[in-house]
Design brief:
Elements (H helix, E strand, L loop, with lengths): L1 H14 L17 E4 L12 H13 L1 H23 L6 H54 L4 E4 L17 H11 L7
Parallel strand pairs: 1-2
Helix pairs in contact: 2-4, 3-4
């Protein structure tokens, strides 16, 4: 993180026309820098409605799989608890059978969870990809209209970026502008 800060400060100083000891060349033209927080795009209340709705729609499609996985996990926990509670009471064969059942359930859970995760990630990428592309195009146009030369994603520098002038953060203004121009209907 420290290297990023040093690099970022060096870049900002060079764009501001300030020279450092390591810079002896003529200063570059001043650049207008703005900050944008991409994490804010998915905020349910203040984010981009189209993106939030798309994410909700994909989550809804996977609700049954999530519920089934949770039920299977609960079944494993209950079987393990039953086996542990009856260690001294059951015969060795019964304990072994319960252990095999638990192992089968765990393998099924792991396989189903991995399968669901892959399917979910693919569905999410397919559904949100066009929305993110549209947002990126709109954000570039929004920044250019305001004369922004450099746009820094604040979410990538969490804890390392200190914004002293809130007017540099165009996140809220962009989201309001984008939502006003676009319905909350997912992009197909």
């Amino acid at each position: 993180m420290r290297l990023y800060c040093v690099l970022l400060i060096g870049i900002l100083l060079s764009f501001a026309g300030i020279t450092t000891d390591a810079q002896t060349a003529a200063p570059l033209a001043a650049a207008k820098v703005a900050v944008f927080d991409t994490d804010a795009l998915t905020d349910e209340k203040a984010g981009v409605a189209r993106l939030v709705n798309t994410i909700k729609e994909v989550n809804g499609r996977f609700k049954k799989q999530t519920d089934d996985l949770n039920a299977l996990r609960d079944q494993i926990v209950a079987a393990e608890k039953e086996a542990n509670d009856n260690i001294g009471k059951w015969l060795a064969g019964t304990l072994a059978e319960k252990g095999e059942l638990i192992d089968r359930l765990k393998r099924k859970y792991q396989y189903d969870a991995e399968d669901a995760k892959k399917a979910f990630e693919k569905a999410m990428e397919t559904a949100t990809g066009p929305v993110y592309k549209d947002i990126n195009t709109a954000l570039q146009a929004f920044a250019k209209q305001r004369g922004v030369d450099i746009l820094i994603d604040a979410s990538k520098f969490a804890g390392a970026l200190m914004i002293l002038n809130d007017a540099m953060d165009i996140t809220e203004a962009f989201i309001k502008d984008y939502n006003a121009k676009n319905s909350g209907v997912p992009v197909k």
